[in-house]
Specification:
- By secondary structure, this protein is mostly helical.
- The protein contains 15 helices and two strands.
- It has three domains: about 50 residues, no CATH class; about 140 residues, Helix Hairpins (Orthogonal Bundle), CATH 1.10.287.4070; about 130 residues, no CATH class.
Amino acid sequence: QARDIKIVIVNPHHVNKSKELEDNSPTKSDYKDAKVIADLIRNGKYSEPKLPAMEYAELRILMNFREKVMVSLNQVKARVHNWFDRYFPEYLSVFKDWEGKTSLMTMRQFPTPEEIVSTGARGVLAHWKTEVKRGVGIKRAEKLFATAGISIGLTEGLRAARLELLSLLDQYELFSKQVETTMKQVMDILSEIPGTTQMLNIPGVGAVTVAGFLAEVGDLSHYDHGQQIIRLAGLNLKENSSGKRKGKTGITKRGRSRLRALLFRCVMPMVAKNEEFKALHKYFTTRSQNPLKKKQSLIALCGKLIRVLHTLGTKEIEYNANEVLGPVRQAQLQQIAA
């Protein structure tokens, strides 16, 4: 690009499917691949990549890094639960959320039931009060002491078990800090991109969704309408039909899988929290003609969310429930309600 050389991308699926058109043979070689690719480009069977730049390039790096850190963080959380299952299975009956400050203090200072029993309820409470002034009292300490006294956890190898838990807590704090630092930088970048404030005002859409969407899509001004982004995500429909036979309709999945997964994870809670998407989901799944299955409805709403994000991001207008539904859809919803 710096030398004004036009860059294009040929889909590997197209190369694989069209290589037999050359010589009616399934053989594959570097020479043949190069010739097939050259023919596809000559015939215009290519796409022009939209490489992210400036803030969008930074967003893509940060969100990819966050995704990897979240995988590691969830693995550490699962290993902590595994540790409790082995050495103190009753612990979560006292602290339903072991990630709280008081719980983390307990896990570092008194990781095993034996240490809690030897310290006593008053000793445990005294340690809590060094950093936590409110929210914990003698009742919680006594409950922890009583639970530790009747624990059925393993009692052998406790010295190694203590070291294992402390190491897991160190990893947990490291990954949590990395996620926090990453999201802080992401929020700073989002504040520099026009239209993000309006997108964040959509009920059920958070910073992770908006940042991940822009990281995968790039500058929204490069797209004339939301359908182009739908194709980029691989959410456009495909049909296999021949003559009188009509096959099932599905999505192509020829696009950015991370974008597709991000939208699906966002839409699932939206059909419960966002009134407009909730109404659309109910309409799609209960209409008299061509009702959709629940998953099909969620896929359709992913496309709707893309169009809403594109409109708000490019026009920088506030979220409007009436415009999201539109007059035709509102009339259909009223007809069903009646």
